[in-house]
Amino acid sequence: MTGIRAFVAALAAVALLAFPAAAQKNVVNVYNWSDYIDEAVLKEFEKETGLKVVYDVFDSNELLETKLLAGKSGYDVVVPSATFMSRQIKAGVFRKLDMSLLPNRKHMWDVIQQRVAKYDPGNAYSMNYLWGTTGIGYNEAKIKQRMPNAPVDSWTLVFDPAIISKFADCGIHMLDAPDEMIAAALKHIGEDPASQDPKVIEKALKPLQAIRPHVQKFHSSEYINALANGDICLAVGWSGDIFQAGNRAKEAKKGVEVTYMLPKEGAQMWFDQMAVPADAPHPLNAHRFINYMMKPEVIARSTNVVQYANGNKDSQQFVDKEVLANPSVYPTTEVMARLYTISPLGQKAQRAATSVWTKVKAGK
Amino acid sequence: MQHGLSRFNVVSLTLGIAFLYTPIALLVLFSFNESRLVTVWAGFSTKWYAQLLRNEGLMNAAWVSLQVAFVSSTIATVLGTLAGVVLARFGRFPGRTLFSGLIAAPIVMPEVITGLALLLTFVAISLDRGVLTVIVAHVTFSLCFVAIVVQSRLLAFDRSLEEAAMDLGCPPVRTFLTITLPLIMPAVAAGWLLAFTLSLDDLVIASFTSGPGATTLPMKIYSQVRLGVTPEINAISTIMIGIVAAALAIASLIGKRRMNAERSQ
Amino acid sequence: MRSRLHHRLIAVGKRLGITGRGLAIAVPYAWLAAFFLVPFAIVLKLSFSEVVIAIPPYLPLFEWGEDGSFTVNARLDNYITLFTDDLYWRSYLGSLKIAAISTAVALLIGYPIAYGMSRAPAAWRPVLVVLVILPFWTSFLIRVYALIGILKKEGLLNLALTSLGLIREPLTILNTDIAIYIGIVYSYLPFVVLPIYASLERFDLTLLEAAADLGCRPTRAFWTITLPLSLPGVAAAALLIFIPAVGEFVIPDLLGGSETLMIGKTLWSEFFNNRDWPVASAVAIALLVLLVAPIVYFQRLQAKVAHGERW
């Protein structure tokens, strides 16, 4: 009998621990991408404001979107990518920011603000956190060995079947992100990468199918480790992830060298934006958090840690020189002009894109 | 008559355990890897254990996961055992077909949809999402696994013992406690273990049904996949295995001592 | 003390008209009704709906107009899509094939393990049970990464095979269907071993001894006595791996190639890439109908057989 009683007591104790008093006032619930901040910043924010930060992380826009669309997510600040955010704004997910609570927005970078306005008209709902590009990561030695004069500054490296086939034996990965890959393919064949016309989107099928036999896998995160380990030699992926793969390879000291390339024809730019859900339990605290993250010396630390550029002009004096001077992180004005953005696809265009993508993936 | 293990038994057990433990051995090995990569060896180091102890987020998530797994598997075992007994022993009752459908359906339902359905339900009844909602979700699908295991064991027995007890005037609840329950105990224990494992491993349903501050270990780990898994996660897995193994060793020692004590009485 | 409490409980129960039998049915029933049937009803409703950009992202099925009119917006489009687009059929079939092969392989590997466990000395058995389940208390993703480390081109398996001289060129296993089979069998092995073990464990060998006394050879005794008696456990094991394997997403995503079609993956992209909750719900409902009906029928049959034996 004592055994059972002890067991019940243990159960009760665990239950008590598991459900602490739920709603508190001096809290801000933040939902950001994983490994996307200098965590010490959170402690400093708590010290300065007396608010407690509940900091959760996610790994995909899709999961964040599901929680937001179901409603009452409980979060005060979320950081969706701009393409997703644009549709979420239409769905009524967010509340308009109260600009009087955000004096630090004077530090923001006008170039980035203008680009983001395509997704968030008038920058009414969101402030930029970090931004980057979608380009190509490759293993220097293996590419050079197979093709000494490989066009390592151009999309032809992956979209010309005659060239990409040379690297098939050492492993090629591509993002499992239909909108981005189709946009890149459209750009390569000279179509509008931002097209909403299902007929134009279907034109991406041919160039993608032509290179499909040489691609080992379409996946949006596996390539980081695979590049770092030297298991693959070429990947279409996100800038910061490929830098991470490069750093990881350096740490392993196995002689693998990973380089990120921003193709000269132009590449897609993406933005991760801080926004406040309409049903946020602590909207005032949310504004205080966003305003704090817009301090130039604070946001610069995020950039230094994760090596993505930020949308805060005045922060650049606090950004590590190495990072600021890297044209793949902060592109030159000339390259910047060739970077493009895509608008979120409507339901018809989205179906066309998914159908193209399923055909591409299945046809090996 | 030869009791115990034949050569065939020994070989199949050894091979089976080797199959199960090869990846685990690798996992433990790489928790001591010098490099950050979990698939390439670069020298011995214990730095990931040191780093793990400083990683508050990961430790918190592990704690949340253990709580959820313990509470949900216990509730699921009670409910699932009842359901298994009902299915195997109660014959016909109104709503029986629906009941057996309800036991099978949560296993069939793809996790994404189970997660979404529960999420929408919790939103509809305005239940704040957190640890509690994850527990409810885990109980719901793991109780079905328990029920199926218990039911299969009961079906393998005929009812002669239970019927004899009832014929001798033993009330049904008493019969259940003194005869049926000991008979199905191995299945109940197996069911609890499966339920605990299911809960500890679940990523998709927990992601849908949790709220601010309730991050389970799989959620935490998955969120790090983008930037690659670090050996810290191998380290936490190694510690988990170590703790369970130690707990078992102690439990079996105590059990043995008690058995000896009982025997000497 | 237990019996006093027990008597009091029974007395209270009788006054309220509750029997132990009724309670045993009602408690799990109520739980499943609240947390499965209600959510299921929501999904069913969703599957007849249509996507919109709003919170929630689908049209309400029933609408009360301000003038008191009532309209039902049920649409069958989502189910028609399932029948007309061959993607779904091919995904269902692909899933069934992969689940069936994995189940067969897992039973072939799992049965001897469970059998060995049940024949081991009684003191070892709990230890063996824990040994089987222990690997699964590490994180799932970590185990999958360990499998990747074994299966990849420069991985352990290829290294072992080439150094033994069995193969010359390293095999490509990762990102193929074979990797999916290995992944599923590995991940679900305890779900196969434990139910079979639970049904085998009760033979205290007296039956087999009797058989041996009557001159029955051990292998013969296995086929004629042990195996038939353990069949309910085998059936449970098959259910516990086959059903989840059909809807599996993470294993084919991480270990399999991009061209493998499985319903779990198709549903995932329908839900997350197309953001089409209604179609995704319809896919799930169809899967449920396809699988639950045969299972319920099978269980009825099993119950009938059990009854038959009894009389």
How would you characterize this protein structure?
The complex is a heterotrimer of chains A (364), B (265) and C (311). By secondary structure, chain A is an alpha/beta fold. Chain A is 45% helix and 15% strand. Chain A contains 18 helices and 10 strands. Chain A is globular and about 60 Å long. The model of chain B has no long low-confidence stretch (mean pLDDT 86). Chain C is mostly helical. Chain C has a domain at 85-275: Orthogonal Bundle (MetI-like fold). Chain C is built from 13 helices and 2 strands, in the order H-H-E-E-H-H-H-H-H-H-H-H-H-H-H. Classes of the chains: A alpha/beta (364), B mainly alpha (265), C mainly alpha (311). At the B-C interface, helix 1, helix 3, helix 4, helix 5 and helix 6 of B face helix 2, helix 4, helix 5, helix 6 and helix 8 of C.
Number of helices of chain A: 18
Tally the structural domains of chain A: 2
Proportion of β residues of chain C?
under 5%
Main β-sheet of chain A, in a few words?
Answer: 7 strands, mixed
Shape of chain A: globular
| Helix count, DSSP H or I runs of 4 or more residues of chain C | 13
Features:
heterotrimer; A: 364 residues; alpha/beta; D-Maltodextrin-Binding Protein, domain 2; 2 domains; 3-stranded parallel sheet; 45% helix; globular; C: MetI-like fold; two-stranded antiparallel ribbon; 13 helices; 2 strands; 72% helix
Write the layout of secondary structure elements.
The complex is a heterotrimer of chains A (364), B (265) and C (311).
Chain A lengths: L1 H17 L8 E7 L6 H10 L2 E7 L2 H10 L6 E2 L3 H9 L19 H7 L9 E14 H7 L9 H4 L1 H4 L7 E3 L3 H11 L9 H5 L2 H7 L5 E2 L3 H8 L4 E5 H14 L5 E4 L6 E8 L7 H11 L2 H11 L2 E2 L10 H5 L7 H6 L8 H16 L2
Parallel strand pairs in A: 1-2, 1-3, 5-6, 5-7
Antiparallel strand pairs in A: 4-7, 4-8, 4-9, 4-10
Chain B lengths: L6 H24 L16 H8 L1 H34 L6 H13 L2 H14 L6 H25 L4 H8 L4 H30 L2 H6 L7 H9 L5 H34 L1
Helix pairs in contact in B: 2-11, 3-6, 3-8, 3-10, 4-6, 6-8, 7-8
Chain C lengths: L1 H15 L3 H28 L14 E3 L5 E3 L4 H8 L1 H34 L5 H9 L6 H12 L4 H8 L13 H24 L5 H8 L4 H29 L3 H6 L7 H10 L4 H34 L1
Antiparallel strand pairs in C: 1-2
Helix pairs in contact in C: 2-13, 3-13, 4-8, 4-10, 4-12, 8-10, 9-10, 12-13
